[in-house]
Amino acid sequence: MLDLSDLKKSDFYYELPEELIAQTPIEPRNHSRLMVIDRKTGEISHDRFYNLCKYLKKGDTLVVNDSRVLPARIYGGRESNGSFIEFLLLEQREQNVWEILCRPGKKAKVGSRFIFGGGKLTAEILEVLEDGNRVARFFCDGSLYQILDEIGQTPLPPYITKKLENKERYQTVYSRETGSAAAPTAGLHFTLEQLDELKKMGVNIARVTLHVGLGTFRPVKEDKVSEHKMHSEFYVLPQETADIINKTKENGGRVIAVGTTSCRTLESVYKKHGKIVADEGSTDIFIYPGYKFGAIDGLITNFHLPESTLIMLVSAFAGYENTMNAYRVAVEERYRFFSFGDAMMIADLGEES
User: Could you read off the pLDDT of 14-33 as tens digits, one per residue?
Assistant: First the structure.
């Protein structure tokens, strides 16, 4: 039995053969595999994502994260001598001022200036942070986001080593609010046609925005789970979404978060207000076994890295033993893992139609 008072990072370790890390997305999007887990019994069944409707019913609500990945990796040169520099924009501090990663870092001293896209974009280093990141101010004619769309590249997770032929495949079909450093990957499985079919059967689709930071890939360093500090991420929960969720609850429907980011948004608002209301702000909520859920009744998610905060969140919702067993089964059954991998759905399934 897991001791919730003394959770260790190593409690969330599992062996993953490297060849199970998905390097390319499945085509079509919704032909990925779907592991279905009954939250109460731990029972597992295997299906395909295009059959998701079998596990939903009229009056359920899917909550999706409509954040769009910023093409935040840019290549340029030093203004003085043209020597190579690479920037990765991490977090907006104020208008056209961003925290960035850069390499080689030794070139990026305070006051250094750089040119990107043949002069379409320039930047000046304002500050060097303790962790080695920089703060830079960008200068351009018009919108910085528009320039980044022209000259930037989408930053893929470090475990994906193959080039992505179509960069839209690392965006959800419903993405619209630009600002993430990584995709909310549970949503990558949906097609527009499937979403339309779900709406026709009476399933609500509600939107939140949480801009995913690169901290989502940072490993848990502390051995004791409770000592880990989460990165902070900006979220918005609109009034329309709050109304849909509250009506769903009143009518006995289930609120199912599509992805850990949607889950963290909903649970952050619930924890802050004791109910779901329209809200926006920053959250560093850390969900691991022992957490009491107040907002969600189900979760659709991908298979996450060993010892990551994401597998800890899934364990909190599905139960630790159920989760680690599901991962063992996924490895045995040769599921595809991580961002371009397969999906799992966790919910109380006794009453699905």
Answer: 999 999 999 999 999 999 99
